[in-house]
Write a structure and sequence with these properties.
Helix content is 67%, strand content 10%. With 126 residues, the chain is mainly alpha-helical. Strands 1-2 form a two-stranded antiparallel sheet. Strands 3-4 form a two-stranded antiparallel sheet. The longest helix is centred in the last third of the chain and has 45 residues. The N and C termini lie far apart (71 Å).
C-alpha cells in the first residue's frame, strides 16, 4: 500500500508517517519510481509507535525498543529483558521530571497567592 492508504488505515497524517520514516521507525520499500510501499505489518507498527509516543517515549528510545514490543491486547509488552530495563529507566526519569514540575507548580502557586494578597491589600487601601 502507498503512504496515503497507510495514513487512512492508521488514522495518522502522511506528514507524521514521513517523520516516522525519517526517524527510522518505519522502513518502507521504495519502488523504482521512488514511491514508498508499506505492508500490512506497518499498520501495526504505526499503532505501536502511537502507543509508545502516548506513553511519553521519545523517538530515539522508540527506535530501540520497537523491535522488542509485542501486543498484549490493547497494551504493549517488552519481549527483550534489556528493553524492559530501558523502559524502567525511562519511567524513573519521568517520575523525577514529574516531581520537579510539581515542585515548580507549588512554588508558582505560592508566588501567585502572595501577589494576589498584595494587590488585594493595595486595592482596599487605595
Amino acid at each position: 500500500m502507498f503512504i496515503g492508504e497507510l495514513a487512512r488505515r492508521s488514522g495518522i497524517s502522511t506528514r507524521s508517517l514521513r517523520y516516522y520514516e525519517q526517524q527510522g521507525l518505519l522502513r518502507p520499500q521504495r519502488r523504482a519510481s521512488g514511491y514508498r510501499e508499506f505492508t500490512e505489518a506497518d499498520v501495526a507498527v504505526v499503532r505501536r509507535i502511537r502507543i509508545l509516543l502516548a506513553a511519553g517515549l521519545n523517538t530515539d528510545l522508540i527506535r530501540e525498543v520497537l523491535p522488542c514490543m509485542a501486543e498484549e491486547g490493547a497494551i504493549l509488552a517488552p519481549t527483550c529483558e534489556e528493553m524492559a530495563q530501558d523502559l524502567k529507566d525511562e519511567r524513573e526519569r519521568m517520575r523525577h521530571s514529574i516531581e520537579q514540575l510539581q515542585s515548580a507548580h507549588t512554588m508558582l502557586s505560592s508566588i501567585i497567592h502572595a501577589g494576589e494578597a498584595i494587590t488585594a491589600g493595595v486595592s482596599r487601601s487605595g
